[in-house]
Amino acid sequence: MSDPRPLLRRILRLATAFAVAACACFSGPVSGIRKDIGFIEPIMCRSTVQGRHLISDDNGYVCSALSINPWSYCCPTTGDRFSCQGCKLDLQCCNSYEYCVSCCLNPSKTKKEDVLKLKVAKPVTAGTYTNVFDFCMGRCRHSSASVVHENAYAGDFHHCFSVQQNSSGSVESSSVSKLLGINVIVGRPGESCSLVCKVRGQSCVPSRLSVLNKCEILQKYMRCKSGCFRSLGPDQPAEVVDEAPTSLNPGACLYMQMDERLTCDGSHQHTRRLCPCA
Q1: Residue 7 Rama label (left phi>0; alpha psi -120 to 50; beta)
Q2: Which residues form the signal peptide (predicted)?
Q3: What is the DSSP string of 148-162?
């Protein structure tokens, strides 16, 4: 019987050679995950949601509620961006909430650095806006300045987005927008605003007295030849008539120091009131 060991040694050498070749082919670790592939994040928009027919997104596009992308909430980009359709640009007011937001988002009309300085509400504890879209959505909504008698709009263009500043020019522009639909009447000496408006078949609008209670506005409707001064009379804002005693400063315009004390019913025999009627 022949010796089997030479055959076993040949088989062992072949097996060793095959194992070495296999190790050379798979010398590095095999990973089942590709780390160099970047996943594209989906584009998402914020949008106004209160409109039944129109929607504006934070890119400045306006579209119908049915055409908005259900996944991204973005409007199609085929229309005009930052559209001011139905807006009066001199007043920065529009007859549509969605177009007001779209127009407001235009960087040439609303400066981000101005918006970020504004308070969201009047209390000192209120925060500031974090972006222009939040400002435009809030600013374009109806407010007490948009209505008269609490149940009627002051005018068709009651969605306004102006950034109020302390400069006299900005105050006047903002005041003009708040007086849309209001008849500003100069009364006769001794008349209250309630009477001034009633004679014309209208009513005095108390919420607009604070708009008129500024020197810039008084000087627009009255002569104020002796200057403009703050005071505390219930008949203000008003102008002292020329025939008044010297001690009352004839020809001077007077505005109330505290807006919360303004009233439609106040009067004084030596002043002519500036009245908001509607």
Answers
A1: alpha
A2: 1-32
A3: ETTTEES-S--EE--
> Which residues have C-beta within 8 Å of that of residue 112, sequence separation ≥ 6?
131, 132
Could you give the 3-state DSSP secondary structure of residue 97? helix
Alpha-carbon distance of 181 to 148, in angstroms, equals 9
Q: Which residues of 83-104 are buried (b: 16+ CB within 10 A; e: fewer)?
A: bbebbbeebbbbbbbbbbbbbb
Main-chain dihedrals φ then ψ at residue 128, nearest 5 degrees: -110, 165
Q: Could you tell me the mean pLDDT of each successive run of 10 residues in the chain, 278 residues long?
A: 61 63 52 54 82 89 92 91 89 88 94 84 66 91 58 69 54 66 92 95 92 91 91 92 92 89 94 95
217: tokens are 């506005």
Residue 54's pLDDT is 92
Alpha-carbon torsion, ordered 66, 57, 158, 259, to 10 deg: 140
pLDDT of residue 85: 93
Quickly count: other Cβ atoms within 10 Å of residue 169's Cβ: 9
